[in-house]
Description:
Layout: H1 13-21, H2 25-47, E1 53-67, E2 72-84, E3 87-91, H3 104-113, E4 119-125, E5 128-133, H4 140-176, H5 184-194, H6 197-217, H7 219-222
Antiparallel strand pairs: 1-2, 1-4, 2-3, 4-5
Helix pairs in contact: 1-4, 2-4, 2-6, 4-5, 4-6
Amino acid sequence: MRRLTYSSNPMSPGARFFFSYIFPYPFVIIGAVVAFLGIRNLDRAKDSVNWPTAEGKIVSSSVRESMGRDSKTYHADIAYEFSVADAVHSGNRISFGDYGTSNPSHARGIVERYPEGLVVTVYYMPDRPKECVLELGITKQARFVPIFGSLCFVVGCVMAIGIPLCFRLASSREQKSKSSELSKRQKRLLVLFGLPYSFVIVGGLVAVWGAYGLIIQQGKVFIRVE
């Protein structure tokens, strides 16, 4: 019977450089941006309960479909107008934390709640009326965004520190395997960063893909830097 053997080929220097100094930083950058914008929107959601109000009117109301790779996402596309100090302003945000789903019932429910022509109360930021909402308070989605961004940021930082350390310890292990054993401290670090290495990479990829989906599909929450 043929005996199976296992051999480990070392990673190339180029691959080590990529995973050590390039791969982690999109997580750090995207996580920081998402966390910052999420916290900013969360803060505005808290302040919105004290915003002044104006009478407005729904000028359009429909369900918008966005095609993804494998499925559709449905958004409530609501537009309204209101006047402040004889100036007409427009808005399309229902609440802080608007989101789209693969189930159209959520978007349809919002459209039914805000049909075209409906007179509504608009809450607006006093010094910036373009920042406005129809519904006050903090939603679950508004809480989720900064948490998700912070997790993505932390994952990136852990990888930025842990992956180079893991490579250095692995190289040290290879060099010392023929002459001596690793110190207890090195063994602990290898266990800490080596064993969950593949899990962190896969989890990080999922985090970046999720952040990308949130930014693209929920632009109303994020892309508001005017």
